[in-house]
Amino acid sequence: MTKQYDIWLAMLGHISKWKKAMLLKAYGSGRGVYEAGKDGVKRDFPDFTQKDIEALENRNLEDAARVEEACARCSARVISYNDGDYPALLKEIPDPPTVIYVRGSLPEGHRLHIAMVGRRKASAAGMKNAAEIAYELSKNGVVIVSGMADGIDGSSHKGALDGGSPTVAVLGTAIDRCYPAKHAGLMRDIIANGAVISEYPPGVAAFPGNFLLRNRIISGMSHGVFVVEAGLKSGSLVTAKRAVEQNRDVFAAPGPIGTEYYAGTNSLIKEGACMATCAADILREYPDFRFERASKTTEKRKQEDPVLAAIGKIAHLDDIAERLDMDPGEAMAMLTMLEIEGKVRQRPGNYFETI
Questions:
Q1: Residue 166 burial (10 A CB sphere; 0-12, 13-18, 19+)
Q2: What CATH number does residue 316 fall under?
Q3: Three-class SS of residue 163?
Q4: pLDDT per residue over 39-89, tens digit each?
Q5: What residues make up the domain containing 170?
Q6: Is residue 293 assigned to a domain?
């Protein structure tokens, strides 16, 4: 069934997202809004502004048709607000996306969803913590939601994939664009074992403000938000703020006093966020959920052999990263997973040896 009318409504300017949600509730679909037209909407919604009504004068479906064709080319599905597989939690927020573009498969709605966010320029310790905790949560069947950015986001997704449960990446770019580009492999893994979603259709140019706007979706899709590492000006604090506005739980990892990397998380804890230093701290807050151990697949382990080969018998972190052509932080996240599984051992001075 065509989604052109829903895409048309999503692309209309001047009408806010919460008003578009009102229209979809009233008329049942984008086609219903289209057929009601400006006269019907003006009659049924007298509080709409003149600009809102004028926006509905745009009856052109050609752009929507092109978006639908572009989605087919990049294997993206269009899920509308009124569709049965639109995330139920996302419907609860004041400004839900009119449509979401999805590559992969959205996890079941009954699962516990936890967002994990933090600094892009994260410390090695922060990325290690993110990977370990995401791994343990994922092993217990929890869906990890994040933004696929550098640092904490990427480490959280990698840990989640290794834990065996699906993970969801919410992009601040068009659904057909991988940002950062170096996460192309990670993006493929997420699509194969979860979903990559965006409210921006294929071909839309990147805009810095869109990354902050997508934070409401990261928190909106989740029962709780865990800020792993953040400075006082970190964008992840915006996600925590949105979580509070959406009546979601907020967790934060504590850090040393006076350390820039944890100034934001320490501030959140002072303001009432739950302190979390391990997966158990989060899981115990959700006694009504049934947690099941996730099974791993060989597909999720396909990156193991190159890492073990890069180590040889024993090697320094910097040398391993150079051999793998990746940042030391990314290499550390992968090494952490292997250490948890008992395949490598960390030695003093950032040396690792195979077991």
A1: buried
A2: 1.10.10.10
A3: helix
A4: 999 999 999 999 999 999 999 999 999 999 999 999 999 999 999 999 999
A5: 113-283
A6: no
Domain count, the chain: 3
pTM recorded for the entire structure = 0.82
In a domain, 89, yes or no: no
**Using an 8 Å Cβ cutoff, are 10 and 19 in contact?**
no
Kindly state the tokens that stand for 259. Answer: 């350390």
Examine residue 92 and state whether it is found in any structural domain, yes or no.
no
Residues present in the chain in total: 355
Widest pairwise Cα distance in the chain: 75
Tokens at 231, concatenated: 């400075």
CB 219 within 8 A of CB 280: no
- Which residues lie closer than 8 Å to 147 by C-beta, 6 or more apart? 117, 153, 169, 170, 171, 172, 211, 214, 215, 218
Question: What does the block give as tokens for 309?
Answer: 């080969």
- Taking residue 59's Cβ as centre, other Cβ atoms within 10 Å add up to 9
The CA-to-CA distance between both ends of the chain, in Å, stands at 54
Q: Are residues 125 and 274 in the same domain?
A: yes
**CA distances (Å), 279 to each of 86, 114, 182, 189, 293, in order?**
28, 11, 28, 23, 14
Count of other CB atoms within 10 angstroms of residue 79: 21
